[in-house]
Amino acid sequence: MSTERKRNARLFDVDRSSVSSEGYSLDGKLDSQRHSDILQKRETLPVRKQKNEFLDVLKKNQVIILVGQTGSGKTTQIPQFVLEAVEVETSVKRPKMMVACTQPCPVAAVSASQRVAEEMNVIVGEEVGYSICFEDNISDKTVLKYLTDGMLLREAMAKPLLEMYRVIIIDEAHERTLATSVLFGYLKLVLGMRPDLKLVVMSATVEAKLQDYFDGAPLMKIYCVHHPVDIFYTMKPESDFLGATIRSVVEIHQREEPGDILAFLTRQEEIEEACHRISEEIGKLGNKVGPVEIVYLHSTLPPDMQQKIFEPAPPPLVEDGPPGRKIVVSTITAETSLSIDRIAYVIDPGVVEQKFYDSRVGVKFLMVSPVSRDRADMRASLAGRTVPGKCFRLYTERSYNQDRHAQTDPEILRSDLGSIVLILKKLEVPDLRHFMNLPAEEALTRALKELSDLGALDDKGNLTKLGNMMSKFPLDPQMAKMLVVSPGFNCSNEILSICAMLSGFDKVKARFVDTDGDYLTLLNVYNEFKRNKEDLSWCDTNFINYSVLKSAQNVRQHLVQCMSRCGIEMCRTYLYGPEYYDNISKAILAGYFMQVAHLECTGDYLTVKGNQYVHLHPSNFLGGKPEWVVYHEIVSTSMNFIRTAMDVRGEWLVDIAPPRYYLKNFPNSEAKQILELLEKWKEEQRKWEREESKNKRYVPRKRGEEVGSREVHRKQEREESRNKRYVLSSNCAWKREESKNKRYVPRKRGEEVGSREVHRKQEREESRNKRYVLSSNCAWKREEEVGSREVHRKREREDRERQWEERKRKCATRKQ
Predict the structure, then answer these.
(1) For residues 15 and 567, which has the higher predicted lDDT (pLDDT)?
(2) 99 versus 429: which is more confidently predicted?
(3) Helicase C-terminal domain: which residues (predicted)?
């Protein structure tokens, strides 16, 4: 499973960590001693020595390219330098002209804002804030904002010229994420229309292409003095890099000098397994070695747990005993803006998990591939920041020199462009010819076709009303459409919960499993969490990560706000209604109809998109092997797996997808034969309905009138209508005359005929008596209703418990 995506935090991993408040005053700011220590440490950063040089270059140029190795202080210090310059040069109020600093991942944006807030001795969310997907921590006081590159693109959709910013800083440009590549092209257009805007591009490596792209912008280097790093290679290639990494960590702790260890792995489950096995192996050594603090790091880690990587190593267990050591096991997140001090040893297995998109077949893959040479060098440099270090590469020197690319390919060349094209259409960017890295024409054409199939673009390539609403959601186009059309299936509340849970889903317990698929299982977990009033003890009892569910709740609230701004109706399907699962399944299929697979006679599934033979992922919860499934993604390891799948019916495919979509995209196969029969049956049904409509003729009103003579029929209706109005008018006149002559009939003996006051008095008395009786009856009925409601709820609870027990029994039977 990928660890660099938002949806990968382990759902069933109880989080018991907390943030220490040591060093903070009651108002949330640092005490004077800790603030003084931070400022003193800040002055040792290499970039501080070139502050005046940087400000001078910034004053004279609109675009600057700044190159400095990781650990030089670019991320935290350059925005503060810029902030000081903007404060001096502009006369407008600072909150109206902010400084923006983009980061490639949410973890880097949050941690950088926290560090800068500490240095400025302010509270995060006031003068310094951050904005990441589904989470904002800013205010009217904010003058420096850290945000992900994707969030800056979304802000441009609301304000195309980005008028709220005076200076924009693109950090970690060497990562070349998809959003960063698009930002380069878009900001180049904006700079031409806003001479007052300045751009600072910061990178860890020198790229001549980047300097040429910005018309020869000045390049400034930050000079860093690093400690020497010795690099070691293996004699032969390692097939099991996970086991080799664990062995290397244990050997370093046994034999090497004091110093912390940083080990890289690809996926979150690998990291957790490695941490567990390292703890076991070191535990077997007893008192022969010092204590260790094992921490892990990935992009979805909550901010409080991120802080553990900055804590010092544990002290020796006894005086003069072996020193303690901190061991950090991380994904590529440790390569970015997170600077971890006291790292003396780096273990590089030479692999990284990346997202790939095969434009020829239109399929996304998560693949483990070799790291490039520049990324390997960057990992090695992390060992020499504060002390001399060593880097252990778990591959051969020949592999480094001959089998690896010099640089990592930009993400725009290996990604699905659907989301980006949708944003560019919203921004009214005419084409991509001025972009630095042009994507393959085939990938761009396929993205336009898929958006057209989703209904986001019309025949001329312009945004439709549906596409305009889809672009306002920070989601994939398929998920955005699923959410937008969900009111048509009367289940927008349920789809909201599913979208939110997909942001943090990994594994679920059997108690919540729904055999119709993983989407409904996610919905069951969220509903139970809310039904138990977000109780932490309930999460602990069911081994569910409380922070992941709270994060999903936060995502859901943001999506509700998006739907409200778009005017999309909020509705729900009755939980125990017969159409509950069908409505939800149809809404999901409406967004993901391109990601459908059919079970062939060989036992494998054939996908409509790319015509790939795939298998169900072992983590899927489905009752057996359904004939048709809709899936969320394809994961490529030793085989191709579809993950997060749901059972759907064949007739739904014909009803919901564009006409003849599957017949055009499926090859000659069993799936296509079945769909041809379904299409033929559907066409006959439509033909029968048309014929039935034609055969409905008008019945003759008079002898001699033709059957279906519409004009004669309408003329007769008009005549009859006029006659009715005349009769009605005459009757009404007669009734009005009669009404004048009517008198009130006496209710009691002795009452005068026509005594209106006596009559009204009697009516009021009778009305009061009726209301009293009605009130008594209603009170009795309310009491009865409350009683029946409790009985009804008790029965519902018993039914749910009985269903859960039945599901558990079925799951146990299948496992046996």
Answers:
(1) 567
(2) 99
(3) 245-428
Pairwise CA distance, residues 767 & 301, whole Å: 68
Please report where in the chains the tokens 């004669």 appear, as a residue.
712
Cα→Cα distances 623→538, 614, 631, 768, Å: 27, 18, 15, 63
Where do runs of H (alpha helix) occur along 395-531? 397-402, 418-427, 441-454, 465-471, 477-485, 492-501, 518-531
776-812: per-residue pLDDT in tens? 555 555 555 555 566 666 777 788 778 777 777 776 7
Region of residue 588 (phi > 0: left; psi between -120 and 50: alpha; otherwise: beta)? alpha
β-bridge partners, 363? 358
Q: Which of 35-49, 393-407, 637-651, 664-678 holds the top average pLDDT?
A: 393-407
pTM for this one? 0.74
3-state SS assignment for residue 722 = helix
pLDDT in tens, 185-203: 999 999 999 999 999 999 9
What confidence category does residue 727 fall into, taking pLDDT thresholds of 50, 70 and 90? low
Decide if 59 contacts 195 (C-beta within 8 A): no
* Strand ranges (E), 589-732: 596-599, 605-607, 613-616, 628-636, 640-648
Tokens of 720: 């009859």
Distance separating alpha carbons of residues 103 and 150, to the nearest angstrom: 9
Q: What is the mean pLDDT of the chain?
A: 82
Contact indicator for 242, 265 with CB cutoff of 8 Å: yes
The least confident of 34-38, 493-497, 748-752 is 748-752
Number of helical (H) and strand (E) elements in the chain, helices listed first: 26, 21
Q: Which CATH class is domain 413-467?
A: mainly alpha
pLDDT (0 to 100) of residue 789: 60
Assigned token pair, 652: 């739904």
pLDDT of the residue at 67: 92
Backbone angles phi, psi at 631, to 5 degrees: -130, 165
Mean pLDDT within 458-464:
91
pLDDT tens-place string over residues 582-621:
999 999 999 999 999 999 888 899 998 888 899 998 878 7
What is the residue extent of each domain of the chain? 45-221, 229-408, 413-467, 593-694
Q: Do domains 45-221 and 229-408 have the same CATH topology?
A: yes
Architecture of the domain made up of 45-221: 3-Layer(aba) Sandwich (3.40)
CATH superfamily for 229-408 is P-loop containing nucleotide triphosphate hydrolases (3.40.50.300)
Place of tokens 């379904």: 678
By C-alpha distance, which of 126, 185, 106, 198 is closest to 153? Answer: 185
DSSP 497-514: HHHHHTTS-S---GGG--
Could you give the dihedral angle defined by the CA atoms of residues 432, 435, 439 and 444, in that order, rounded to the nearest 10 degrees? Answer: -20
Q: How far apart are CA 326 and CA 309, in angstroms?
A: 8
Task: Give the pLDDT of residue 413.
Answer: 87
CA distance 15 to 1: 20
Strand bridging mode 63-67 / 596-599 = unpaired
DSSP summary character for residue 491: -
